[in-house]
Structure formats: C-alpha cells, structure tokens
C-alpha cells in the first residue's frame, strides 16, 4: 500500500515520525527540520479526514522517564506546524482512552517512546557479559512485542515515516507493523523520498557515478566503501582517512589522524579500485597545521610528507582541483563526510571545493545525494542546500542503506525481511 493511494477518511492512523529535534535549555526547538519533514504525511492524513496519533522518540532517556526529554515540550510547535490543535498523552503505553476518543481531524501526540525500555527492546541494567543476559534479552523481546501491540491497538493503520530510526528494529519502527495487515501499513512520504534517493545511487544509476567519502576514519566507512566499489566510476576518499592511505603508501604523516592498524585495509581498498577500474582520488597535498586549532600556523605539503609536530587538517590546492575534476560531468553523486576539519573556518576549503563542484554538476543535470550530519552541515554552511538534489535526514540509517543493508523499518512494511 502507498500513502498516496490510501484514503484515511474515518480512520485512525498511528504514525512513527522522527521528532528528535534539538532543544535549548528552555525547551525551545532550535532546528525544526525534522518536524517540517514529516508534515506532508501528517497533513495528508488530516486532509483525508483521518485522526492522527503521532509517536516519536527524543534523545536517549534509556528506558526511564526524563522530563527534559518530554515530547510535551514540542506539542505547541507541532500544533502550529500542522495548523490543528494537538492533545498530549503523557504515558504512551496508557493512551487507550485518549486514542479511542479521537475524532476525524484531531491529533494526539504520545509521550517519548523511549521512556519505556520496551521501545528499544534492550535489557537495562544488565551487562552483556552477565550469564543472565540472554534470558533478560529474551524477556525484553517478549515485552517489546506487547508494547508494540498496545501501540498498534490505538489505530486502524500504521505509517512509518521516521527514516532517521529506520535502521533500528524498535517497537514503533518495525515490530508494530506485525499487528497490521499489508493493506493497512505503509511508508510515509518522507520515507518514500529517502528510499527513492538511495535507490538512485544504488540501482538506478546514471553514469559517471562519483562517490565522495570523507570524515575522520576509514574504519567506520569501510563497509560503504566496499559496497560502492562495485558501482562507482570515481571514488574520492578525503578528510582524516587521507593520512591512513598516505601512511600505508609509505608516507610520513606527522601528527595527522591515522589508523595505524588499518594500513592493510587501505592497501586493499587501493588494490580493489585498480582491479575494478575505479578512478580512486585521494588528496596528494594537504593544508597542515601545527596544532588542532583554527588559529594554528599552516603550510601546504604533500599528504605523505608531513613533518613531526604538524597535522593535515584540510585538502591542499592540488587535491581540491583533483576532486573538482572527478566530480565535473558526473551524473550521479553521493557525498558523505567532510574533506577537512570544516568546523574550523580556516580549514573548510576542501569541503567547500567539493560542495561547489557538486552544486555545479547538479545544475548540469546530475542527481546528488548528500547524507550524514557533517556533510549536511557543510552544505548548509556554504549556502548550497538548495543547489543539490537531495539532503538525507538520516545519518546511520542512510549509511546502512548505502552499505546495502535492508533497513528493518522498511522491511517491516514491505515484508522483505
Ligand atoms: P565522521 O564522523 O567520520 O564522518 O567524521 C566527521 C569529522 O571528521 C568532522 O568532525 C571533521 O572535523 C573530521 N575531520 C575531517 N578531516 C579531518 C582531518 N584531516 N583531521 C581530523 N579530523 C578530520
């Protein structure tokens, strides 16, 4: 079933959204992107004449009630965004009456799901090494099913629209779907957009396809790099991982971030790229600094000739040119992770060069997908957000999807577990 086809008239819909929005110390929302992201789905349900039960997590309360993470704080903001009054259920597992009383066009917001350990389904207060852990886990999984069943009992249909948590098999993101038949569960519009965007870079690829992987470490991105190796024409590896590659090639990297135990991994990436005919682009020069600070002294050196006491914090001018050249003319682009310590204004040049090249290629017809908190922050910092094709709302979920993993939140709806 698709949300577009479904008619919510006279139905109660329970919708899992990602309202894990950042709050300031007074409980005010500092960035409402996630609320805005869910609006198309929520508004369609109300417009059809349905009643809406909204559920989400916020932060990491670890199975305990924590007033600082109460969704009650965002009730008014949700009402304003929806243009409809919102009532609040202060206990998400005891909202039967409030849900039963809901009429068409009305909205009920449930309290933070993660106030219950059943949401995540992980036993609390017991170490994995404890011999009793397995039994505790089994018991918690059974409780998770009951919790999901309770949530499901509030509504006639279920909509999953929380891409940011779609890689988690939680009560509200996946387990709940078992309590609805195929015709009464569906992905929301945001999920559909994310799934299409991922599909564009994993299956529906227009060539040349260029992937840009940056960030701090190669070890956290290796699964994605390996999956992409079979698909891309150009692979740009940048950011801190540059120095693991430079060292693996026999270079000297000074104090640069470098995973000494991943040198073999780096060499095998280089070998695989060669074997598969992938154009691997790793920055040959770097902007190096004499301390990890925005005001450090800097100079440009080859990435494998960094003196002791210095560290590479950004891509050098030759590297930036090489990145832009690989991106130019691409028809599919995926960017995850910055090319330098972009949080420091003096070390943004590499990430900026990439962002600008991606924007230019997009203007010339490429599909560009930007994902992962830091690359999204880069694109926003450089004012390029409306010059790329799609900015994913999911960090971990996007990365797992690109790695080729089936996300539980999608599998639960589509049945391809
Ligand atoms: P990740 O979470 O792995 O995507 O890494 C993102 C972080 O990598 C950002 O906070 C960047 O500041 C950092 N980063 C990028 N390039 C470097 C570098 N050359 N040295 C140290 N950190 C870096």
Q: In which range does the helix fraction lie?
A: 25-40%
How many strands, what sense, and barrel or not for the largest sheet?
Answer: 6 strands, parallel
Structural class designation: alpha/beta
Beta-strand residue fraction:
15-25%
Cα Rg: 23 Å
Mean pLDDT: 96
Number of strands: 17
Distance between the termini: 17 Å
Strand order of the largest sheet: 3-4-2-1-5-6
Number of helical segments? 14
Dominant shape: elongated
Low-confidence stretches: none
List all distinct small molecules, including ions and cofactors, that are bound in this structure. Answer: adenosine monophosphate
Overview of the molecule:
The chain is an alpha/beta fold. It is elongated, with a radius of gyration of 23 Å. The strands form four sheets. It has a six-stranded parallel β-sheet, with helices on both faces. Helix content is 35%, strand content 16%. It contains 14 helices and 17 strands. Adenosine monophosphate is lined by residues 215-217, 220, 239-240, 257, 312-313, 337-338, 340-341, 343, 372, 374.
């Amino acid at each position: 079933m698709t949300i577009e086809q479904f008619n919510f008239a006279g139905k109660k819909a329970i919708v899992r959204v990602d309202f894990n929005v950042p709050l300031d110390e007074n409980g005010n929302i500092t960035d409402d992107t996630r609320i805005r992201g869910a609006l198309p789905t929520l508004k369609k349900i109300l417009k059809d004449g349905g009643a809406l039960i909204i559920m989400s997590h916020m932060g990491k309360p670890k199975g305990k009630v924590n007033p600082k993470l109460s969704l009650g704080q965002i009730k008014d903001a949700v009402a304003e965004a929806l243009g409809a009054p919102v009532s609040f259920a202060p206990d998400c597992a005891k909202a039967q009456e409030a849900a039963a009383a809901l009429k068409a066009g009305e909205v009920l917001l449930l309290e933070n799901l993660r106030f219950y350990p059943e949401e995540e389904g992980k036993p609390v207060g017991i170490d994995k090494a404890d011999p009793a852990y397995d039994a505790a886990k089994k018991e918690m999984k059974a409780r998770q099913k009951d919790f999901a069943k309770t949530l499901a009992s509030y509504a006639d249909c279920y909509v999953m629209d929380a891409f940011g948590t779609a890689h988690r098999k939680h009560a509200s993101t996946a387990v709940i779907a078992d309590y609805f038949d195929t015709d009464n569960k569906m992905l929301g519009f945001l999920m559909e957009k994310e799934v299409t965007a991922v599909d564009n870079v994993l299956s529906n690829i227009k060539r040349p396809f260029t992937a840009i992987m940056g960030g701090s470490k190669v070890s956290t991105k290796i699964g994605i790099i390996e999956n992409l190796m079979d698909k891309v024409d150009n692979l740009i590896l940048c950011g801190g991982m540059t120095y693991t590659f430079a060292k693996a090639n026999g270079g000297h990297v000074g104090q640069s971030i470098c995973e000494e135990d991943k040198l073999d991994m780096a060499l095998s990436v280089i070998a695989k790229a060669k074997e598969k005919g992938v154009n691997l682009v790793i920055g040959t020069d770097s902007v190096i600094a004499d301390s990890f600070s925005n005001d450090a002294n800097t100079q440009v050196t080859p990435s494998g000739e960094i003196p002791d006491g210095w560290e590479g914090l950004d891509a050098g001018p030759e590297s930036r040119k090489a990145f832009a050249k690989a991106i130019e003319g691409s028809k599919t682009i995926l960017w995850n992770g910055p090319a330098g310590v972009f949080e420091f204004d003096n070390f943004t040049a590499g990430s900026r060069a990439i962002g600008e090249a991606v924007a230019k290629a997009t203007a010339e017809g490429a599909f560009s997908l930007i994902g992962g908190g830091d690359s999204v922050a880069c694109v926003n910092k450089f004012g390029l957000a409306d010059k790329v094709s799609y900015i994913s709302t999911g960090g971990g979920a996007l990365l797992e999807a690109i790695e080729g993993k089936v996300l539980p939140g999608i599998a639960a709806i589509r049945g391809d577990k």
